[in-house]
Amino acid sequence: DVVPFAEYQGKLKLEKVSSGERLRLPPWLKRDIPVGSNFHKLKSNLRDLKLHTVCEEAKCPNIGECWGGTESGLATATIMLMGDTCTRGCRFCSVKTARKPPPLDPKEPVSTAAAIAAWGLDYVVLTSVDRDDLPDGGANHIAETVRELKSRNSSILIECLVPDFAGRNDCIEIIAHSGLEVYAHNLETVRRLTPSVRDPRAKYDQSLTCLKAAKKINGNLVTKSSLMLGLGETDEEIEQAMKDLRDHGVDCLTLGQYMQPTKRHLLVKE
């Protein structure tokens, strides 16, 4: 049984942040080893089609719940396009990095569409690594995937969580006119922490401008972003980030607890 928060006797806060000590996860944040037919069916399907998911690459602790679903319920996964290697190295993320990742798989848009069509989903989230090594940052590859999906199921709702494309409006426009419903790009953290949390090429104002541009290009889009909590930000900074997002026309915001994926990554801070 999970120990209630009020009865937990373990430490929830480091006495010295600089000590390098890592706290043990409290029981309410622990997850069972993923099992079940839905989980294994989805994993096998992804491997057969050589598709990657952010669930695996980011070492998400909730993978068992999302992939497992129930025997009669819907299992979900977030497909990660353009390979499993990113050209950027954000200090919160465990995805592999390289200056020049392997070339894109030209069959991936069709494979992705085939997999999602087989799952019978009503809503799907497509995300990707950053590919600064490509002339268009991979925008056309993502857009092609959206079109392939829509050709198989015109009623499916598609959310794309995309890179900033170095602020290039032509790349943003390719995605915005591809047929998706939700254009998402994550601000990740507050202005003060951006230089120490995100890759140097990821700028706070650039991310805001990209979201505003997507809405301007296609006013029918829902724009969405996300902030991580637990990197040392203050309540006032979070409130300001929320205001900044709203001032740039962002419709939806999600807030998530940052969880340190490995010892090499940033510590969780209050």
UniProtKB/TrEMBL annotation:
Pathway the protein takes part in: Protein modification; protein lipoylation via endogenous pathway; protein N(6)-(lipoyl)lysine from octanoyl-[acyl-carrier-protein]: step 2/2
Required co-factors: [4Fe-4S] cluster
Signal peptide segment: none
Gene3D superfamilies for this protein: Aldolase class I
Molecular function in Gene Ontology: 4 iron, 4 sulfur cluster binding; lipoate synthase activity; metal ion binding
A biological process from GO: protein lipoylation
Catalytic activity: [[Fe-S] cluster scaffold protein carrying a second [4Fe-4S](2+) cluster] + N(6)-octanoyl-L-lysyl-[protein] + 2 oxidized [2Fe-2S]-[ferredoxin] + 2 S-adenosyl-L-methionine + 4 H(+) = [[Fe-S] cluster scaffold protein] + N(6)-[(R)-dihydrolipoyl]-L-lysyl-[protein] + 4 Fe(3+) + 2 hydrogen sulfide + 2 5'-deoxyadenosine + 2 L-methionine + 2 reduced [2Fe-2S]-[ferredoxin]
Family: Belongs to the radical SAM superfamily. Lipoyl synthase family.
PANTHER family, sorted: LIPOYL SYNTHASE, LIPOYL SYNTHASE, MITOCHONDRIAL
NCBIfam families (UniProt xref): lipA (TIGR00510), PRK05481.1 (NF004019), PRK12928.1 (NF009544)
Protein name: Lipoyl synthase, mitochondrial
Gene source species: Romanomermis culicivorax (Nematode worm)
